[in-house]
Amino acid sequence: MGEHRIKGSGPLLDERGRLREPGYALRPPFDYDHDRIAAPAWRIKDWDYYLVNDDRYAVALTFSDLGYIGLVSAAVMDFDEAESTTASELVLLPMGRMGVPASSDEGDIDWENKRCKVSFAHTASGRRLSFAMKGFDGNDDFEAEFLLDQEPRDSMVIATPWMQSEKAFYYNRKIVGMRARGGFRRGALFREFDGADSFGLLDWGRGVWTYDNTWKWSAAQGRVGSQVVGFNLGYGFGDTSAASENMVFVDGVAHKLGRVTFSIPTDEDGAYRYLETWRISDVEGRLNLVFAPAIDRSDLIDIAHLLISDQHQVFGRFYGSVVLDDGSTLSIDGLRGFAENVHNRY
User: What angle is formed at CA 162 by the lines to CA 161 and CA 163, rounded to 5 degrees?
Assistant: First the structure.
């Protein structure tokens, strides 16, 4: 089945708060405006998630206003040691007051409390990320400063409704393969990212969801020979009958894929075995990936069994091939990235 590429522009939502045009694009086509949302403020979910990695470390930074709760989070993944550390700060009842901008191309985040200080800013040369957290790992504090530049020509943009509610929608942009320079400090550990083989991605999400959702998402970025290669793959979130979010990027140019499937190993009771080999494929026979996991960055937030976020973001390497839009085959041999399975009830 064909996928709808968005041709329109203007407001994301109509006068009744419904998505005007579900589908996908390569640049943001619509304006996101809280005043047009039909749902109450406590149902609105806005976040910026950045991931920066080289071949040894990855750093994940999250800033989100989820209506009745806010989440400020940092994580460090050490691939050589196959370990991760995550720390989060919860903010009660922010209700849109955390200053998350309405655009992925402009508007800055500047927020702090007694423990954390966050600045995600647009500059003339790119995106500057500054993040500090006291008591990140025991007595060890955490600091990170990154500049992401050389933003690729294309990105993945999708506007998704839900069949269960006309007030629910998801407006999402993924920018994959920006050059990353800077570094982070965790206690006595300091790591510099030099920009030659260090890359950053942005997951920018805005919307109103239904209460109970499970999604699978995978992304990777790095060099394949002389080319900068990345991909964004996922499904399970909302009504994606108009379009999927699946794309491969080669030197900043998007190649659109159709539906994909993540095959995650399970035990005899049906429980996922996240650190065994996964397979990811598509319905058109263009994508054939093997994912070799190394780190399961799992996190469970359970507040009175009413607000639940059960996350398994698994980092490792990808092997296999993908047929590009021109019919050529791109071989992938050890590309660094992650694949995740997330269940949220909030």
Answer: 120
Residues of the chain with pLDDT under 70: 1
Asked whether residue 74 is assigned to any structural domain, the reply reads: yes
Q: State the pLDDT at residue 321.
A: 98
Number of folded domains that form the chain: 1
Q: How is residue 285 written in tokens?
A: 């026979």
Tell me whether residue 266 is in a domain: yes
As a whole number of angstroms, the distance between CA 345 and CA 214 comes to 9
d(CA 224, CA 172): 27
The residue length of the chain stands at: 346
In the DSSP assignment, the letter for residue 83 is E
Whole-prediction pTM: 0.97
Q: What is the pLDDT of residue 1?
A: 56
Distance of alpha carbon 246 from alpha carbon 260, whole angstroms: 8
Which DSSP state fits 285? S
The parent domain of residue 244 ranges over: 10-345
Residue 318: inside a domain: yes
Residue 55 and residue 140: Cα distance in Å, rounded? 23
